[in-house]
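In the previous chapter we treated chains in isolation. Here, by contrast, the input contains two separate entities that must be folded as one system, with a combined length of 684 residues.
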Amino acid sequence: MGKSAGQLVMLIVINGLLLVLGALISGGSFLSSYNLQSMASQVPEIGLLAIGVMLAMCAGQGGIDLSGIALANLSGVVSAVIMSTFVSASTDPSAFSIAFIAGAVLIGLLGGIINGALIAYLKITPILCTLGTQMAFMGLAVVVSGGKAVTVGSPALLSSIGNDMVLQVPIAFVIFAFAAALVAALLRFTPYGLWLMLMGTNPKAALYAGFPKNGVLVATYAISGLLSGVAGIIIAARNVNVKFDYGSSYLLIAILIAVMAGVKPEGGYGRVLSVVLSAIALQLMSSLLNFGGLSNFVRDFAWGLLLLTFLAVGRYRIAGFLPSIKRQTNPSAPSPQGPK
Amino acid sequence: MSVPPVVYSGEGLSKSKRPGLGELIRKRPEIITLFLLITICIVVGVVNPAFLQASTLIDIGRASVVMGLFALGVLIILAAGGIDVSFTAIAAFTMYSMTLLVQSRLPDLPIAVILIMATVGGALLGVINGLLVHHLKVASLIVTIGTQYLFRGFLLSFIGTVWIMQLPPQMGAFGRRQLLQFESANGAVTTLPVYFLVLPVAAIITWWILNRTLMGRAIFAVGGNSDIASRLGYSLRTVQIFMFGYAGALAGLAGIIHVCANRQANPFDLVGTEINVIAAVVLGGARITGGTGTVFGTMLGVLLIVVINSVLVLVGIPSTWQRLVVGAFILLAAAFFVTRQRRK
């Protein structure tokens, strides 16, 4: 519990530092509402995938979801191809948008259930299963689209998801925040959340306690798939086109975000709020490097270094040695954080 | 091949049964791969007789060298219960830096020294992996994701992003040197290059390590159950450093061969193919949770993937189906192996 609060405080401090650093480097333009909005609209895609990875990791026993971005692209591609044969995007934009959204969510959910069923009932190791489904999902997207980008265009409703603001906040970010809050509530207030975390902590004890193990596993990967479907919608809304190989580096970044958020790769612990903050921190860092005029390759290098640094921090509890964080941790220790 | 010292979990005390086909498949899962491979070859041979020409077979052999070297490294790591996705980045790193070094500083370096230096360079990067995995005590998948970014990011930001089209002469010559030459009926000449020999040599060395040395025993023991292995006195640190170092060495070698074979050094190459390689090793019967795996099976897995990649077009299936087919094969193989293991 002390550790979880420490991690949260650390992420908040990092976010704050990055904002200050950005403001100093850019002379204030980093904090302009335009830049903040543009950053906020870039977070949701990867943030949604990272929450999916977090859930899979929490389930323990090597749980991981490598199929996230492939499934997101598959949802976008298949939904776009199917729906555009029934509804014309140009004559009836809102009907097309609604059909596209429903299709993408459904395909994401279906893909997630397939993952979960393979892992729970056929007992395939999660890494291997999601590796296989990642290839299969991507392959299916290639087959359906013929390897080309599929144009979704910008029908009214969909394009507003990608580009418009509510109270100065991009709609995509609002959707992301809403989805994150929903998952957080699910983890905290339902038996599912308790089962998931305890199963990740001690699978044997969970088995003897009579948890519905298969149900929890299927639900976990189904939620992850659902989030991928939503990510697919946001990708389509922001990019006009959907393509099978969009965001090929997202797979690793999603895992990086989850690990940075203190999610235990061996299972049993993870907080949605930390994942959201960690996704925002990564976006800030990426924008900061862009402001500094550094290439994408330097960013890749920095992310690799960062991932390893965070693993080292988690391993040696370097955070615990920092006096400021220690001070923060102690008073908040008895706070009603729950065993999550 | 002799039976490797496999650690089957929880079946040591199972009653001795009549050794039926199911038993054989469970013990030697690569038989399925062999069966699949032969079936595909026969079907494709019937549909399109062009497949069974010497030139096609040589193309397949040539295409499997780099992937085969990668797969041998992955096999060792999988057998010890780890996973590595950074080997392609190691290969890209060593191949490009080596080529650059030879081109700009040491133009007279003989090819043998170049190969050895690339191997050693790859091994050093692999040892970094091993040390990190050991000391951070985190799943090796996550650590190697980090090092993949680290190595590739370092290569592209600090070493270079320019394609080298004009290789140093000794490297080009090595890529062209022939072992065998065939002339087909229509006069087209196909050659089996000398570098093909590297793969069987590496396969034999890997087989020797896994089956004839204490390190091989330690690797299977750690892959079966690392806690018990360490209590039995196997040093986890040594095993982890060795296996990642060995995989790195093979990756470095594979990288330089890739350069010589393609007659250009592209720093953006290779990374992204790691999933294919892991798929090949898994299709070859190695369990992703460790403790099992054979060199023979791995080579079959590599051949299977290379054959699938190259024959889809020959039988009239569009190449867009390649990923879907490989993905389906992985899931089928995984499901099959798992159900076999449960039914005792």
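The first helix of chain B runs from residue 21 to 27. Residues 83 and 141 of chain B are 5 Å apart (CA to CA). Compare these points with the single-chain example from earlier in the chapter.
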